Amino acid sequence: MTLKKLFTALLFLIFFCNTINAQLDEKKTDSTILSGFSNKNEPGGAFLIAKKGKIIYRKAFGKANLELDVNMTPDHVFQIGSMTKQFTSVAILMLEQQGKLNVNDPVSKYIKDYPSGDKITIHHLLTHTSGIRDFTKMKTLSTIAQKEMKPEMMVDFFKNEPVDFAPGEKFEYNNSGYVVLGYIIEQVSGQTYEDFIKKNIFEKAGMTHSYYATDRQVIPKRAYGYHQKEHGFVNKTVISFSVPFSSGSLMSTVDDMLKWQQALNQNILLNQAETKKAFQKYKLNNGEEFTYGYGWHLKEINGTPDREHGGSIFGFKSMGVYIPGEDIYVIGFSNCDCHSPTEITRNIAKIALQSLKK
């Protein structure tokens, strides 16, 4: 064998070995997902895994619509629930980047009559450390659940409730804080929250199949949401999306969510300094660090740092995991709140981490 042929053979061998090492364990991934989405005649879900922006796994399971017997595809649009908070936090940081607000501003700067608004900052709202009452825990929520609520009406609904703790005293997940953030976005930008997200995030990131949720508008390839009862499945409870608002009212696809992650990675929406704010851990008043940035939980998978967040809204559940050190993104959606993709998404992220590690 000539030296040239030997060199070519060695190059091929190196490439071939690297390709093998970088292959996802698809069979194990399938079986992990099927542990919760095995019945093809039930509501299902969609899952996607990407490495360095390249899709390496993209599959759907079950039905998108039971009445019409429509199979789920990875193209279907899901309500993403609290994953909406990522978009709200980035919108706030975009406005800060434009010099229109500061995350250390008190809420009273934008909502004059907010109780203790001079002590609660935008930072407290972003990090779930404000202490204000979570409207989803209020017994009176059912009285407004199907009403069309303006953002200021939503804020008025909970703002006079007793606080749970002083601002910055503890971390406690809170939907009300993100509703206030949505209202501030409208006040500062002069646009509706829906328009701001559409024009400044969806359009810039190329997310052509993402929407502010609606039950009235015709959404191409919409997955329908379901609950499971003792006698079988029923259509999801109808709510007004103006109630969860900026804490949980967006819709998207697995492909669009990858575009979202790529836009963040490539600083298409935020510069590096603002992006860093979203993904760093912060401290409570007593100096104790907690594992939440701005719109993301900052945790670990098998000792490797990750960023993750789930969502739950009537008829739907969602979960996204990003492993920055390996540039691995995993997203899972379900169109029944009886099937949670949370642990499944984390488990397939573990599989991806093991088989796709550099």
From TrEMBL:
Keyword Signal: yes
Highest taxon of source: Bacteria
Signal peptide region: 1-22
Keyword Membrane: yes
Keywords assigned by UniProt, alphabetized: Membrane, Signal
SUPFAM superfamilies to which the protein is assigned, alphabetical: beta-lactamase/transpeptidase-like
Protein name: Beta-lactamase
Organism: Chryseobacterium luteum
Lineage: Bacteria, Pseudomonadati, Bacteroidota, Flavobacteriia, Flavobacteriales
